[in-house]
UniProtKB/TrEMBL annotation:
Pfam families: HATPase_c, PAS_9. GO terms for molecular function: phosphorelay sensor kinase activity. Keywords: Kinase, Phosphoprotein, Transferase. CDD domains: HisKA, PAS. The lineage of its organism: Bacteria, Pseudomonadati, Campylobacterota, Epsilonproteobacteria, Campylobacterales. This is histidine kinase. PANTHER family: SENSOR HISTIDINE KINASE, TWO-COMPONENT SENSOR PPRA. It catalyses: ATP + protein L-histidine = ADP + protein N-phospho-L-histidine. The keyword Chloroplast does not apply. Residues 15-85 form the PAS domain.
Length: 384
């Protein structure tokens, strides 16, 4: 029996040495603590990491090696490990013998039979530094992209303003011509022997109507360019009609028929940024208008079909301009991509940004038998 006990003790010592050898080869700090958090054993990795010898660690605890603000949380973690059996990935700042601070992640496991705590410590200083650096670079990239987006928004506005000035010229040309003819008529009327006051009243009313029309045109375009980031309720159909009015003269001059078709039961009330929606829609209509004019399509048309698809309202803007070539179909929404000689390639890109980022919807394009079909999909019950 004495020999057996001696052999068992020798085996235990051998196992203990093997276990310590394994501990010392580990890639993390492994230590054994008593119930007060004092060190009973620490592997080589932990000793090197904390710059203490084992003899010095006997006088320390996981609490004393913590930075002051983590002393009490470390004591709580030890107590929690004893009560609950385990504490995983407890993060704190440790202080080495030389005073260097390191970020550490610790897991503690309580061994009830020996009343000891096994603590595994990982130095995550470099990981945190990498994460902070990555976060900093991401923030820089976000700021850079935000700045680029703002520049593109400004460019889009300038491009739209150029187009709108041309549109105003179209809208005003006809009433200005009419006013010119009326003024010439007044000269003949004043030279006539019998002055017709009834005709004069009719001329006055006609001139006032023309001037009011021109004034309303300025108001329409002024409202279109008024920037507002405040969401509000608006009627989609009214907003579509207001948008079409901006290019109504061009459509008529080019003999392009624009039709709005609405499916029964569609809820047209929406909560969002109305002017941005109008800008996105106008960019799409302008794109169809330009292509139809350039191709001189016979019986040209643009259709806006409004349907309900479960929880979404869908606007399909289609034309008969022949569609988009397959090689350009995937590029159509990319910034600065254009097939026009004087295009800037911002309009459709901005439309997609407005619909998908600002209105949380979706904008896509496909070809039909007649031409291109742009689909705007918006949540029908967008609320505050």
């Amino acid at each position: 029996m004495h020999l057996q006990l001696k052999k068992s003790l020798s085996d235990l010592r051998s196992k203990k040495e093997e276990l310590r050898a394994v501990f010392d080869l580990a890639g993390n700090g492994i230590s054994i603590l008593n119930e007060e958090g004092m060190f009973i054993y620490a592997n080589k990795f932990f000793q090197t990491m904390m710059e203490y010898t084992m003899e010095e660690l006997y006088k320390e605890s996981c609490i004393s090696l913590s930075s002051p603000e983590y002393a009490e949380p470390s004591r709580t973690a030890v107590q929690k490990a004893i009560e609950e059996g385990i504490v995983e990935r407890f993060r704190k700042i440790c202080v080495t013998k030389s005073g260097k601070q390191i970020n550490a992640s610790m897991s503690l496991s309580y061994i009830k039979s020996t009343n000891e705590i096994v603590m595994i410590t990982s130095d995550i200083t470099e990981d945190i530094k990498y994460q902070d650096d990555l976060k900093r670079r991401i923030n820089q990239e976000v700021k850079k992209r935000t700045k680029q987006y703002e520049i593109m928004c400004h460019q889009s506005r300038l491009a739209s303003m150029g187009e709108m000035i041309e549109a105003i010229a179209h809208q005003w040309r006809q009433p200005l011509n009419s006013l010119s003819i009326i003024i010439q008529g007044l000269r003949h009327l004043s030279n006539s022997e019998s002055f017709d006051f009834k005709l004069l009243n009719e001329i006055e009313n006609e001139m006032i109507n023309k001037i009011n029309f021109m004034s309303e045109t300025i108001d329409d375009f002024s409202n279109f360019f008024r920037t507002s980031k405040e969401k509000r309720y608006f009627n989609l159909l009214d907003s579509i009609k207001d948008t079409i009015r901006l290019v109504d003269i061009q459509l008529k001059n080019e003999n392009i028929k624009l039709t709005i078709n609405i499916e029964d039961g569609v809820n047209l009330e929406f909560f969002g940024l109305e002017n941005e929606f109008r800008q996105a829609l106008l960019n799409i209509i302008d794109n169809s208008l330009d292509v139809l004019v350039s191709k001189k399509q016979h019986n040209s048309f643009i259709n806006i079909d409004i349907t309900q698809n479960e929880n979404f309202i869908e606007l399909n803007i289609s034309d008969n301009a022949g569609g988009i070539s397959s090689k350009n179909l995937q590029k159509i929404f990319k910034p600065y991509f254009t097939t026009k000689k004087e295009g800037n390639g911002i309009g459709l890109y901005m439309s997609k940004m407005i619909i998908e980022q600002n209105m949380k919807g979706n904008l896509s394009v496909r070809n039909s038998q007649n031409g291109a079909v742009f689909t705007i999909s918006l949540k029908s019950k967008e609320m505050k």
